[in-house]
Structures are given as structure tokens and as C-alpha cells.
Amino acid sequence: MSFFSRNKEKIIVTIIAIALILLIGFTSAERILLTKFERVLGNILSPIGKFTNSIGKNTSDFFKNVGEIGSLREENERLKSIISQLEEENRSFQDIIGKIDYLKNEAELKKTTKYNLIEAQITGKEPGNWYHRFTVDKGLKDGVKKGDTVIQGIQIDQNTIIEGIVGRVQDVGDNWSKIVAIVDENSSISFKILRTQDGGILTGNIERKITGYLFDDKADVIKGDKLFTAGLGGAYLKDIYIGEIESVLSDEEDLMKTIQIKAAVDFKKLHKVFIISN
After folding, report:
1. Range of the domain at 170
2. pLDDT (tens digit, 9 = 90+) per residue, 226-242?
3. Which of 3, 149, 183, 243 is the right S-S partner for 263, CB 3.0 to 4.6 Å?
4. What is the pTM of this model?
């Protein structure tokens, strides 16, 4: 019997074993080669992936930022509008605070006055720091007449508000009137002193000071005496408060006693007046 015949089974098993070993070897080598290829390909594609991912992220962030900028712009405009509104309200509050004394006097005067009052807003004035000639927004249609007396509410003590003289209506139209104040150099007004009932004449001047003289050069007048309109000549209504004496000067040569007064009305801060409608 031949060698192959005697060992046929062993030879077949050996061949099969060798085939399996070779197959396993080829598979491992192929896997090694594939792994190396994958590594090289990965090294090439990885930066590209990172780059494309970066571009995608940056693009996304860009459009996100554009959207946020639009939102911020809208929010900024909204805040600007709120700030503008608050500033306007603040100005209104400051305006009210600045006028608080006047507004209190005005409200009290409306309750206590015996006169028919026409409330008028000042709409214009002649150049200068003083309201010596000005225009208001009421006229013939509102019952205003030429020569009407113009006043404000004046506080003369803690609880008393009375009419304080401003001036008189010089000219009037349908819906406007021109006022000449007592500080104007062309103004002249008769007065009486409350304490002694002595009288005289007051005039304004170019410096907007009010000075005057007493009919009686021997009259007993002192600083602080209060003056009211006397109503002589009919230019002004009687018993309207003018102000108080600041200084007294006697001139024996001219046989005259002169005075300078502090007006009850502040002629630098007028904004609203009342016209007494007869």
C-alpha cells in the first residue's frame, strides 16, 4: 500500500489546516492593509470635516448674530422711545413743580374772587427779560374789552389769596389781546396806602422799576406799607393789590415824597393771567 493511501486522512486534514492558516493570514493582512488605508483616508478627511463643520457653525452663528442684531436694534429703538417718553414726563413734572405756587394761588383765587375772570394764556411778548408788553389768547369772542384790568392770584399772608395787578388791555382782536403791564414806562396808576389811606401816582420806567409820589408830602409812609389801586380816572379797577413800599425818599425842595415799590407780581415769570370782565 502506498504512502498516500496509508495516510490519506492525515494528509487531507493537514491540507485543510494549512488552507485555513493561509486564509486567516490573508484576511489579517488584508485587514492590516485596510486599516492603514482607513488611517490615511481619515487623516485626509478629518481636517476637511473639521473645516466644513467650522464653516457650517460659523455660518449658523453669523445668521444667528444677524438675527440678534435685528432684535437688539428693535429693543434699542423701544428703549429710546421709553426714555423719550420719560424725559417728556419729567419735563412736565418739573414744569408743574415750578408753577406749583402759582397754580395753588390760581385755584384759590377762582374760589374766592368776586370778579368774573377770563383765564388767558400768554402767547407772545416784546423783546427783553420782562413781560412789560405781551399778547394773550383771549379776545372779543371771549368777552375781553379794551381797558379791562389784568390780574394774577397773589398770596399776601399764609391763608389769604387776593387779586394782584398785572396791567390792562391796550388793544383787542377777536381771539387775542395786547396787555401793557404796570412796569412799562408808559404805564401810570393811582394808588392808596392801606395803612394810612394816603394816595399818589405810580409809573413804570425803562428799568422796569415802579416808582411814584404821594399827593401829601407829609404823609406817614414807611417801608413795607401795602399799596392798592385807588381807581382814580377809571383806568384800573379799585382795590386791586399792587405791592409794597421798598424805599421812601423825601424831597423838601420839590415838596414831594417819592417811593419805590416791589410789585406783588413777578414780571419775569408770567405765563398765564386773568382778565377781569366788567
Report:
1. 116-276
2. 999 999 988 899 999 99
3. 243
4. 0.66
